[in-house]
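2024-03-11 09:14:02 INFO queue: dequeued item Root phototropism protein 2, len=565
2024-03-11 09:14:02 INFO validating residues
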Amino acid sequence: MERTGQWVFSQEIPTDVIVEVGEANFNLHKFMLVAKSNYIRKLILDTKESDVNRINLSDIPGGPEMFEKAAKFCYGVNFEITVHNVAALRCAAEYLQMTDKYCDNNLASRTEDFLAQVALTSLSGALVVLKSCENLLPLAHDLNIIQRCVDIAGAKACVEANFPSRSPPNWWTEELTILDVAFFERIIVAMKARGAKALTIASAIITYTERSLRDLVRDHSGNNTRLMEPEDSDMRMHQRELLESIVTLLPAEKAAFPINFLCCLLRTAIFLRATSSCKNELEKRISAILEHVTVDDLLVLSFTYDGERLFDLESVRRIISGFMEKEKSVAVFKGGDFGDVCTTAMQRVAKTVDAYLGEIATFGDLSISKFNGIAILVHKGARKADDDLYRAVDIYLKAHPHLDEIEREKVCSVMDPLKLSHEARVHASQNKRLPVQIVLHALYFDQLKIRSGAADDTNNNMPEAMATRNQLQADVSLVKENEVLRTELLKMKMYIADIQKTTTSTQGTSASHKGSLKKTTFFSSVSKTLGKFNPFKHGSKDTSNIVDDAALDLTKPRRRRFSIS
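2024-03-11 09:14:37 INFO prediction written
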């Protein structure tokens, strides 16, 4: 009564009907309502009651506010139609059947005139009207209000993208951020149909994403308290659906988006546990332009928002692997061998990956398999020198001091000691964290360079490196054989010394008549033992060069063993 008492012109005539709209009650006059609303007229006429004094219109579009304006129109009271309420008024007029069919110049035609002459003449007006339609479905769709707003907004957005009418030039992208993702998607589709460029579409999507997922895409500090929401909360589910919808809108051109934006989207998808198809699409797009990636971009993918722990590194591994497969396909298509091809893009990616490994190597929960799994994805030919990879390996060994020798050798297996620069080899030769084998390789390579008189060159080609490696392996094998022979000789000396000790102890306890026998037994045993090493056992028995101090009977030579005294 307080609301309607201000504009109901005839208070001396008592009201005869109460209209209920939600929790609001309107005391009105039947004859004023039925004059312009065919819906209320039918309710009164079709009722079986003799006197209708209460009507429920709780399901009217726009609720009590829109019914109040419609009632004012019935009473002839002026009110303002704006871009914010015109769609709701149009739907309310349709619901109440306030059309020109029942009364000339009725509310429906008034709102249609405002839409055509005011609201839909500008991009901002069309977007505001479209935003107001979110709570007016499906009636707003049936009245074609939504489609008209989408067409007008799409056309004017394309014009603004090509010929900006105000500053900054991309102001129109900010206007689109007020929309729900379903309406935003319809405008993007309309712009594509009108031939909008991929960069124009990308600009609108980037702005919309940064506004809609501000705490996930733009905030990298981890200090936002909203990140503490549980995974199954309504907000997280809404964000997940929003992200998946945005990914489906990405234009086909792979280079339309900056790679840092794609990395932020992928990190958000991992955090929100988006579908596999959503993450795979983002990974493919990043792989296609991986040569433009920076270490910071890869780190965005690798760490949680608080920066305290690593994400699952499988996405990074698949991205690098996809890039290498793409380069391999290009090389095969051009008729070359992938092993011989080393493009500038591959060299750039290799350098970035090595620097990235150096950044994540400090984390104790990074396993050897994950570290090596990323390092070996880069083709060896893409690294002209392994200095950056050696730095990452050294950082990993320093951050994991409890590794045994075998584990340290496994970590170092990803790099080639022969492809280190002179400064890196000098550092490696003094690095106590490295396995002995790696240190020996570095030292031996320097010795070979000095011996051959060749100047140190960090850009050694692969044939020279392979030849040096083969020579090194042959020399190492020879050293091992020498060690085995030295060990066998030492064992034989110890065996002979043991026999001599045994003979000496026996001589002290035996009688003199066994002296000659004991002496013969000693030389006989020694001869039998050393006879196995007779150099003439399988060859010539020419003894012309053997000189004996005792006189020999040349006519009847004695048969004797060739022994060494």
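2024-03-11 09:14:37 INFO annotate: The chain has a mean pLDDT of 80.
2024-03-11 09:14:38 INFO item closed
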